[in-house]
Amino acid sequence: MVDVPLGVRSDLAERYRQVRPFDVAEVALVRALVKRPDRLGRRHEVALRLAFNIARTWVVQHEGRDVVIGHRLSSFRDRVRSIADRLAASNGEIDPRELELDAERLQTLVHWQIDDILTAHRGELSAERLDREIGQKKLVLALGGGGGCGYAHLGALSLLSSLQLQVDGVVGTSIGSVLALFLARDGAYRDGFVRMAMTGLRYSDIFRLLDGPTRYGIPGAMQLHLRSGIERFFLTDEGRRCASATSRCLTPVWSPVYDAKWSTRCAPSSASWPNSSAGDHGVVCSTSRRWSRD
After folding, report:
1. In whole angstroms, what is the distance from residue 142 CA to residue 284 CA?
2. 93-130 pLDDT, tens digit each
3. How much is the pTM?
4. Eight-state DSSP code of residue 2
5. Which of 82, 76, 80, 81 has its CA nearest to residue 113?
6. Taking the domains of the chain in order of start, what are their residue ranges?
7. More confident residue, 149 or 80
8. What DSSP character marks residue 157?
9. Which residues, 6 or more positions from 176, have their beta carbon under 8 angstroms from its beta carbon?
C-alpha cells in the first residue's frame, strides 16, 4: 500500500497511489546502474524507463489544452507494476538477465500503448508532443529557506553545473529564492559570478534593525536589505516589466515587512505571489523567457 502525504485531495491521492511506485522503481534502477553501469545495456535501460514514464503520465498539455490520458493506462500500469515492485525491493542488487527479458517484453507493449493513445486522441494530441512528454525529463529545483542553512543550495547548484546538467526551472522561498536568482539570471550557474556578487558586501549594508514595537526597549528582529547589496547584479528589463505587472494584480503579504525584503524587479521571468495560508512569501524564478500569471 502506498502512503499518501497528509492534506492531499482525494482525487490527487488516488493518482499518487497509482504513479508513485514507478517513481520509486526508476530511482532504484538508476541507483543500481550508477553503482554498476555494466549490469544492463543502454537499450534495455531506455525501454524500462520509458515504460515507467508512460505508466505515470496522466495529463499531456498540447497547444494550450490538457489532454487526459491517465484513465487509458490502467491496464498498462497493472502489467508494469510487477516489474516496478521487484525493482523497488531489489536494494540495488538487480538481476540483469531478468530485466533484459522484462525490457524486451515491454518494448512491444509500449509501442502498442502509444499507438492506442494517439488513436484515441487523434486531432487532440500529436505523436511529437507525446514523445516529448514521455521521453524527455525536465529538471526543476525547489530551493527551500532556512537562513544560513539555505547556502547549501549553492553547493548543489555548483555540483549540477559541474555535471553539465541543464536545469529547466527553479522555484524558491526566502533565502532559496535569492540563491535561485544566481541560476535564473542567465539560465546557468557560475561560481565566479557568485564570488563577484559577494565581494564588497558589508554587514551594515545588509542587516538593519526592523522598525516596529520592541519589548523592554530591546530590538528583536533584523531586516535584510538585499537590494542595497546585490540587487544591481540581477536587474533586467524583463524583471522590471514583471514587477510592473505584479504590483497591479498581487496583494503584498504582511506589508511592509515582506515588501522590504526583496523585489520582483530582480526576477528574470515569472515572479512572486503570496501564499496567505502559509504566511510566507517567496520569489518564483524560472529559466524560461515567458512570464504568465500561472
Report:
1. 10
2. 888 899 999 999 999 999 999 999 999 999 999 999 99
3. 0.61
4. P
5. 76
6. 10-135, 140-266
7. 80
8. H
9. 142, 143, 144, 145, 146, 150, 153, 282
